[in-house]
Every structure is written in structure tokens, then in C-alpha cells.
Amino acid sequence: MLQMVKHEKLLTAHGVVGLYAANSSGDDILIYDEDVWPRGEPTAVFHGLRQQVEKDVEDDDPYLCLSDFIAPVESGVSDYLGMFAVSAGFGADSLAKQYEQNLDDYNSIMVKALADRLAEAFAEELHERVRSDLWGYCSGERMNSSDLHRIKYSGIRPAAGYPSQPDHSETLTLWKLLDVKAATGITLTESLAMWPAASVCGLYFSHPQSTYFAVGKICEDQVEDYASRKGVPVSEVERWLSTQLAYGRADD
Q1: Which of 102, 148, 168, 191 could disulfide-link 161, Cβ–Cβ 3.0 to 4.6 Å?
Q2: pLDDT of the residue at 51
Q3: Rounded to the nearest 5°, which phi and psi values hold at 203?
């Protein structure tokens, strides 16, 4: 099927990437239009959540937040944050529908699965280009596919709605900064799912000690602080983070 899709150009891929001046302030990441000092007013803010569940006494790992991987604004150090959105799913729905009309459920499922894999491959290839060229913080990187699968490269690309930042609504900030719909045609549903479904978006961190982690359960004090930083009602944060709450909601 891959060869057929390739030769007949049945699927189309689109993507966009951006690199921005950035610094952290507490658990937030501030985004700037210009890389100048002193920093002006941020163009946008990515709000972070910090691990809060008490760890074992012998566990001396820090309680992480994504903002830890960006230089604090008070440090005076210029830092940067990358972001991207890619899709390899344009044409997948119509092709799957053709198979369904021919009662070929197997190939209908396969074309959607193939589009998903191609989108992930696009995200991986673009990240490699960012590290070695577009951002160039690992310009001498040479890795085989095994190293890539084991994430042996420097930096991470977490996404909103995943363990390091479980709040899906943070996707909206990326969407506005990159103007994703205009640049790629990828759209968001009311629940912030991407269409085409075979799409991936996220942030790029270059810090050599950046790592994936799970925020886990969070307490009411952090939810209230997070809502205050985002400028939204606590009830809205609780709705987006319902599975992360370490307490019962008032309306439960």
C-alpha cells in the first residue's frame, strides 16, 4: 500500500515549524517576537504544570515542569522554544471511504494506519532537521534509526494533552503563534482534536537535560494557581484536567 500511495500521490503532507525567543518565569514559558534585551512584553505564554505527588523518601529527583528546561528571564540568558505542526493525512479519509464503499474494511483501516505512521515519521524527520540545521543546536548529530527510536538525541518534543503537559487547551497558543490552519490546512475540533486525524503537533526543547516526564495528579492549590495564570475560571481548568485531579470536583 505504501508504494501505491507514493506512486499515485494519494496522500498529501503539510507542515509548519517556528523558532521563538523564550524565557521562563516560574512555571510559565514567555514567548517574544524579538530576541533583544531587556525583554519586552511577551507575545504569548505557555503555561506549565509541575509534578506534585509526593515521591519516595529515597527518590531525590526534582519535581519537574516543562519551564525548567528554558532559561529564567531573570538570568539574562537568551533562550529559545521551537514548535511545529505536521500532517500526512490529507486524502486519507476519502481514500478510506472508497475502500469502505467497496466493502474492503481491511484496506480502509490500513490507509488510516499508514497515514498515522507517515505523520509520525514526518514529525521525526522534521525534528532531526531542526536539531541539525534549522535551529542547529546539534549540527554535528549523526544517528541511525535505532538511536532515533531510543530517543538518544538531545532535546524533546512534548505535546499538549500528553503526560508532560496534560492540558489540551495549551494547543491553542501554538495554533495562534504558527497560524497552523492557514499554513497547513490542519484544523482543530471543539475538543481540540486535530483534523486530519493523522496529524502531530508539539514543542521543541533543546536543553541537554530536558526529558519526558508525567505530571501525574495535581492538587487544588496548583489548579487554582494555574487558572489564575491562564486567566480562566477554576472550573474550566478542572474540566480540561479532570483525570489529573487529586481531589473531587465540587460538581461531582
Answers
A1: 168
A2: 96
A3: -115, 155
Q: If we measure between CA atoms, which residue out of 142, 133, 154, 166 comes closest to residue 237?
A: 166
pLDDT along the chain (252 residues), means of 10: 86 97 98 94 97 82 96 96 97 92 92 96 95 90 71 88 96 98 97 96 96 95 97 96 90 64
Q: Is the Cβ–Cβ distance between 117 and 143 less than 8 Å?
A: no
Phi, then psi, of 24 in degrees rounded to 5: -100, 155
Closest listed residue to residue 227, CA positions, set 237, 217, 219, 218: 237
Give the model's pLDDT for residue 5: 83
Q: How far apart are CA 242 and CA 40, in angstroms?
A: 35
Under 8 Å between Cβ of 226 and 148: no
Whether residue 244 contacts residue 217, with contact meaning beta carbons closer than 8 Å, is answered with yes
Question: Residue 233's pLDDT is what?
Answer: 97
Check residue 131 and report its DSSP letter.
I
The C-alpha cell of 220 is what? Answer: 487544588
**What distances in angstroms separate CA 216 from CA 125, 182, 243, 245, one per listed residue?**
30, 34, 9, 9
Q: What's the pLDDT score for residue 54? A: 83
Q: Contact at 8 Å (CB) between 110 and 1?
A: yes
For 172-189, b where at least 16 C-beta lie within 10 A, e where not — what string? ebbbebbebeeebebebe
Q: Beta strands of the chain (E only): which ranges?
A: 12-25, 28-32, 44-47, 79-90, 187-188, 194-195, 199-204
Q: How far apart are CA 183 and CA 181, in angstroms?
A: 6
The answer to whether 90 and 13 have CB atoms below 8 angstroms apart is yes
